Amino acid sequence: MNNRINFVGGVWIVLGALSVLGGPLIALMALGMFFGGQTFLMANSETGGWLIAGGMLLFACCIFAMGWISISAGLALRKRQPWARTAIVILSVINLINFPIGTAIGLYSLIVLFYTDVRATFAVP
User: Fold this and answer.
1) Exposed end of the chain (fewer CB within 10 Å): N or C?
2) What one-character DSSP code corresponds to residue 125?
3) What are the counts of helices (DSSP H) followed by strands (DSSP E) for the chain?
4) Greater confidence, 4 or 44?
5) Which comes out higher in pLDDT, residue 111 or 44?
6) Which residue pairs from 48-54 have beta carbons closer than 8 angstroms and sit at least 24 positions apart in sequence?
7) H helices of 37-100, where?
């Protein structure tokens, strides 16, 4: 069972690292839209471009923050810290909407973390 817990922790570390790298790339695209003034979607509407760029920037910040949360929860899960199981369960439920890979990762994480002996491992004394 320890191998499965370590695997789940490692998967969330890798997923978090990809998010930490992807967040700034989305932010760079949003900033390009901010300073470009117009977007390819709304060439005649500068206001629409600013709204889309602002939404992208907010989305990039959320992706970046979720990446750091995933990394820290994955590392803590591998160290068997009790709060990490709860954090990974919450992240797994959120990740279920990211079909197909996110759904697979979230479902596998939930299955592993709800085994009886895994719950006993993370029980607070």
Assistant:
1) C
2) -
3) 5, 0
4) 4
5) 111
6) 54/30
7) 46-78, 82-95
In terms of C-beta distances under 8 Å and separation of at least 24 residues, what long-range contacts does 117-121 make, across chains too? 117/1, 118/1, 118/4, 118/5, 118/85, 119/85, 121/1, 121/5, 121/80
Amino acid code (one letter) for 112: V
pLDDT digits (tens, 9 = 90+) for 32-82: 777 765 555 555 555 666 777 788 889 999 999 999 999 999 999 999 998
- Asked if residue 84 lies in contact with residue 124, where contact means CB atoms within 8 angstroms, the answer is no
Tally of CA atoms within 13 A in the half-sphere of 53 that contains its CB: 20
What's the full length of the chain, in residues?
125
Going 78 to 81 to 87 to 93, the CA torsion angle's sign is positive
Q: How far apart are CA 122 and CA 25, in angstroms?
A: 36
